[in-house]
Specification:
The chain is of the alpha+beta class. The chain is 50% helix and 7% strand. The radius of gyration is 17 Å and the shape is globular.
Length: 220
């Protein structure tokens, strides 16, 4: 059995998008298997279809060589041990890239909860609370610093090639677009690069084709 990445709804599962991009960018062979999320047990991580493949009751989860690796960051690190170019080559840049990915992995709770991932949606303009705006300000400052220090020669945080850090921020780029979050010109250039990246466009096409929705997120 080869590498199998179980993912959730492509339109909504920001966690699934991240390692899917990492594996794709790394040229690692894998099969994608989609599990439709929602319904009984979803909110409590007790969906039988997910528990059948993931001990945490969550996706994404990678099955590889008899091992089961849940968690998007763990999957990304597994990939990086096989394809070193997924992190920046310079040790200092690599440390900052890891820090940025970890901050995204565990932070920005207001932005996550109040602007749920919904790739195909285009919401009407709205007023955001101070908590969301604080998250946005931190993101813009972080991206600006990384681009200024390490981004010469390309549109991504660390230059011309996307890294794991960029994969972790790609779902945020979709949120900026979905909810029309105001951004500086510099930030918008970075967001545009992420949203135009060919692998992301493939994922986005899959999200557009999905016949099912999640009303609780479509109306958020």
């Amino acid at each position: 059995m080869g590498n199998v990445l179980y993912v959730g709804n492509q339109n909504y599962s920001s966690w699934s998008l991240r390692p899917w991009l990492v594996l794709t960018w790394g040229g690692i062979s894998f099969e994608t298997r989609l599990i439709q999320l929602g319904g009984p047990g979803y909110a409590k991580r007790q969906m039988p279809s997910v528990l059948a493949v993931s001990p945490t009751g969550t996706v994404p989860v990678l099955h590889t060589d008899g091992e089961v690796i849940p968690d998007s960051l763990a999957i990304a690190e597994w990939a990086a041990e096989r394809v070193r170019a997924l992190w920046p080559a310079d040790p200092i840049a690599r440390a900052h890239a890891r820090a940025a990915a970890c901050e995204m992995h565990s932070g920005f709770g207001a932005l996550r909860s109040k602007t749920p991932c919904n790739i195909r949606r285009r919401a009407e303009p709205r007023t955001f609370g101070a908590d969301v705006l604080s998250d946005v300000a931190r993101l813009e400052a972080l991206w600006g610093t990384l681009r200024s220090r390490f981004g010469a020669g390309g549109p991504y945080l660390f230059g011309g090639t996307p890294t794991i850090a960029d994969a972790f921020f790609t779902p945020v780029a979709t949120r900026f677009r979905t909810y029309r979050i105001p951004a500086s010109a510099e930030t918008q250039r970075y967001l545009d690069a992420l949203l135009a990246e060919p692998a992301f466009k493939r994922w986005e096409e899959g999200a557009a084709r999905e016949p099912f929705g999640m009303p609780e997120w479509d109306d958020a």
